[in-house]
Design goal:
The chain is mainly β. The protein is 4% helix and 40% strand. The longest helix has 12 residues. The protein is elongated, with a radius of gyration of 35 Å. The N terminus and C terminus are likely disordered.
């Protein structure tokens, strides 16, 4: 005889099983978690900070597993995002996100049901620095002619002229962290231009009053060597109107001379320690010469760029080739407003034998190109300025 008591629990078992796995109709299906290969990884963001009140910025995020269609999240809210590759995206952060200080969490979320959200990177929003931290006076320095930054030793050096009431004719070291001046070190007469060697072992100082250059050992500012500039073609003394240490060789420096009548551009010279290389770029008073008052080394010790900035016929650009025993013009062009350009065509690095001349269309009736046996010189009917106050040229830090 069949006993029903053996099967009374069967419906309950069936119902329980249906509730556990779902019984038709698709309802109640549980999605599997994102797999590791679907979760984006955020490794860096740029920029990673902004001050309060900043305008909208373009944020770049870097990582891996970024799917096409992923979004960059800011504290969980989606930003306007652009997918670049599986490892890079960009997004726009609106200015409304920078109204108060704090930290925001940046993440990346992949699209689709199987996508995931990355780890977070922190974006800092900080108050702008107090204005007094931007610029502070340095007690003990009344007048400064030029300034140079010594990154290796964390110091600034200032040249102080002969007219300074506190520390005339000196070089003053400055601690930029606490804005304190060190003990002034006596230099020659009226120090002006400064330049630090490539290895921060030397400080080159132009001496306007002595028509020369002095070198100091760093960081102690111990006097090392000095030399006088050569006389110009008329026998006048010259001082360095610009001074630039070579970018590679710490023993090499280039300078532009200026004669006692304050007529710049009397020559570009290169020195190794205190020894002048025999050949130089002639000044404007020499055939084929150039009126130059500003120089800048290229990335190597083989090229110098030069120009002029203060005279009526300003606008020239000069490229000079630097050789172990000489420096000479490679190309010399005057801007179209002057109307003349000339290129010495032979014997780079020599002061004689320069040949060749080319003239552009003249845009000024005052200038013309005149070939000479040794090159080309501009014939100028406009009166020149033969005497003027000492120019105030940009410091080396301004030119960087």
């Amino acid at each position: 005889m069949l006993s029903l008591s053996r099967y009374t629990s069967l419906p309950l078992v069936i119902v329980t099983a249906c509730l556990a796995v779902g019984c038709g109709g698709g309802g109640g299906i549980i999605q599997p978690p994102p797999q590791p290969q679907d979760i984006p990884v955020l490794s860096a963001i740029a920029p990673s900070s902004a001050p309060i009140g900043a305008s909208a910025i373009d944020l770049t995020v870097f990582g891996s597993n970024f799917r096409n269609g992923a979004t960059v999240q800011w504290n969980g809210g989606a930003l306007s995002s652009s997918w670049i590759s599986t490892s890079q995206m960009t997004a726009t952060v609106p200015a409304t996100n920078f109204v108060s200080s704090g930290n925001a969490k940046v993440t990346v979320t992949n699209p689709g049901s199987g996508g995931g959200t990355s780890n977070a990177q922190t974006f800092a929003i900080a108050a702008p620095p107090v204005a007094t931290t931007w610029m502070r006076p340095v007690p003990g320095v009344t007048t400064a002619q030029d300034i140079a930054w010594d990154a290796a030793h964390g110091k600034l050096y200032v040249s102080v002229p002969s007219i300074d009431p506190t520390a005339p004719n000196s070089i003053v070291p400055i601690n930029p962290v606490n804005a304190s001046a060190g003990t002034p070190v006596r230099a020659g007469n009226n120090p002006n231009r400064l330049s630090i060697s490539s290895d921060s072992a030397y400080l080159w100082v132009g001496l306007d009053g002595d028509n020369g250059v002095e070198r100091f050992l760093l960081p102690g500012l111990t006097k090392d060597i000095s030399f006088a500039l050569p006389l110009d073609s008329f026998g006048n003394g010259q001082r360095p109107v610009d001074l630039q240490a070579a970018p590679v060789n710490p023993h090499t420096v280039a300078l532009v001379s200026e004669n006692i009548n304050l007529e710049t551009g009397q020559g570009v010279y290169v020195y190794d320690d205190a020894t002048r290389r025999p050949t130089f770029v002639p000044g404007s008073s020499s055939p084929g010469g150039a009126l130059i008052d500003w120089i800048q080394w290229a990335g190597s010790d083989s090229t110098i760029y030069a120009s002029q900035s203060i005279t009526l016929d300003a606008g020239a650009r000069v490229d000079a080739s630097v050789f172990p025993s000489s420096v000479g013009i490679r190309n010399h062009e005057v801007s179209p407003r002057v109307g003349v350009a000339w290129t010495p065509a032979a014997k780079w690095g020599t002061t004689t034998g320069l040949t060749g001349c080319r003239a552009t269309a003249k845009r000024s009736p005052h200038f013309s190109a005149t070939p000479t046996p040794r090159g080309c010189r501009p014939a100028c009917s406009r009166p020149r300025i033969s005497s003027r106050p000492r120019r105030s040229s940009p410091s080396k830090s301004d030119r960087r």
